[in-house]
């Protein structure tokens, strides 16, 4: 398989839903500026999106929208589902970019989101059974940190968190371990930015890690700075199933990037920012993403083709 053939597969892997964008500010039951970067999960035989909604002060909160087919007839909660707790320093300026995962042991959903407070953006954890009431477990690792998700189960007795701290101005993807979801250690870099590539300036986790027979599929965003804008695109990597701190493969090319008018124009143009992934009963992977930081869109791929693609990607040697 030549690199041209693989690049062709990468280009054709994800197909945008023709009804995109699926959620916009105009549809909202109360006045807002924008809706984008949703966490996504299957819940009660529906697709549930926990959307980042920006109000007219520029602060964000989270609101649920549900749909049977994950594409149409979205039922949006009439009020914000999860508001920032303005009495805390941590959540002073809002809640952003949630990722959702089902914790197998706790039988609850874990939501990692960015709390935007005086100390800078920090990753916070909330737990829920029903997406109506949320137990807040607070900030996990000191700021500046974003783009985080828990793995759904323990490895060698410990929980694993994928996250994106800024260290010495560098924005790589890290993994930390914890026995109790409170104390974190054994921090290590999983994936680094790649100089001069599409993911050379910054990277961060996209949606929750997705378990496939070959390991954990990682969808991540990469940023390229140009004279005109910051291009936010999406690529893939594969982690070992039992030792997810080991990166097995990483794609050279991106698989989704700003092309359509709704991705190129908006509050922040040239952004595709994946935050939710759902495997549907038809064996398709639906990726939910913020388009230009003001609307929600979805792109779909055959899970078998995604697996074929990632196994064609170069192996990563440690
Ligand atoms: C990142 C995050 C996202 C946003 C993206 C593009 O740093 O803040 O919320 O979608 O930038 O503007």
Structure in words:
The protein is built from 3 helices and 22 strands. With 318 residues, the chain is mainly β. The strands form 5 sheets. Strands 10, 11, 12, 13 and 14 form a 5-stranded antiparallel beta sheet that branches. Strands 15, 16, 17, 18 and 19 form a 5-stranded antiparallel beta sheet that branches. It has a 4-stranded antiparallel beta sheet with strand order 1-22-21-20. Helix 1 (3-13) packs antiparallel against helix 3 (303-312). The chain is globular. It binds beta-D-mannopyranose. Beta-D-mannopyranose (BMA) binds next to strand 6.
The molecules bound to the chains, other than polymers, are: beta-D-mannopyranose
**What's the order of the H and E elements?**
HEEEEEEEEEEEEEEEEEEEHEEEH
- Residue-averaged pLDDT, rounded? 97
**Largest sheet data:** 5 strands, antiparallel
Fold topology:
Layout: H1 3-13, E1 15-16, E2 34-43, E3 46-54, E4 60-67, E5 75-76, E6 95-103, E7 108-117, E8 120-128, E9 135-139, E10 145-150, E11 159-167, E12 170-171, E13 173-178, E14 185-191, E15 202-205, E16 210-212, E17 215-225, E18 230-239, E19 247-250, H2 261-264, E20 272-279, E21 284-291, E22 295-302, H3 303-312
Antiparallel strand pairs: 1-22, 2-3, 3-4, 4-5, 6-7, 7-8, 8-9, 10-11, 11-12, 11-13, 13-14, 15-17, 16-17, 17-18, 18-19, 20-21, 21-22
Bound molecules: beta-D-mannopyranose.
Beta-D-mannopyranose (BMA) is lined by residues 37, 96-97, 232, 268, 271, 273, 290, 293.
Using brief descriptors, characterize the structure shown.
mainly beta, 47% strand, binds beta-D-mannopyranose, globular, five-stranded antiparallel beta sheet, 318 residues, 3 helices, Tachylectin-2, Chain A, 8% helix
């Amino acid at each position: 398989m030549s690199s041209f053939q693989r690049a062709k597969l990468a280009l054709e892997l994800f197909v945008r839903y023709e009804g995109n964008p699926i959620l916009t500010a105009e549809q909202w039951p109360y006045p807002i500026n924008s809706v984008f970067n949703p966490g996504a999960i299957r819940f009660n035989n529906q697709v549930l999106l926990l959307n980042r909604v920006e109000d007219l002060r520029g602060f964000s909160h989270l609101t649920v929208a549900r749909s049977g087919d994950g594409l149409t007839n979205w039922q949006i909660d009439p009020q914000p589902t999860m508001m920032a707790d303005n009495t805390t320093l941590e959540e002073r300026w809002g809640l952003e970019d949630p990722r959702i995962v089902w914790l197998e042991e706790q039988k609850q959903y874990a939501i990692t989101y960015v709390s935007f407070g005086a100390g800078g953006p920090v990753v916070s954890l909330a737990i829920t059974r029903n997406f109506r009431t949320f137990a807040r477990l607070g900030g996990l690792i000191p700021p500046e940190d974003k783009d985080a998700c828990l793995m759904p189960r323990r490895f060698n007795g410990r929980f694993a968190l994928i996250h994106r701290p800024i260290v010495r101005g560098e924005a790589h993807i890290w993994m930390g371990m914890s026995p109790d979801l409170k104390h974190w250690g054994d921090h290590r870099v999983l994936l680094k930015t790649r100089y001069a590539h599409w993911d050379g300036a910054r990277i961060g986790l996209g949606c929750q890690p997705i378990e496939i027979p070959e390991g954990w599929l990682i969808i991540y965003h990469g940023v390229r700075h140009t004279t005109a804008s910051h291009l936010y695109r999406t690529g893939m990597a594969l982690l070992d199933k039992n030792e997810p701190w080991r990166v097995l493969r990483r794609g050279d090319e991106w698989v989704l990037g700003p092309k359509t008018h709704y991705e190129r124009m908006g509050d922040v143009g040239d952004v595709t920012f994946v935050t939710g992934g759902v495997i549907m009963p038809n064996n398709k992977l639906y990726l939910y993403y913020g388009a230009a930081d003001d609307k929600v869109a979805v792109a779909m791929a055959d899970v078998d083709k995604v697996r074929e693609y990632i196994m064609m990607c170069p192996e990563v040697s440690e």
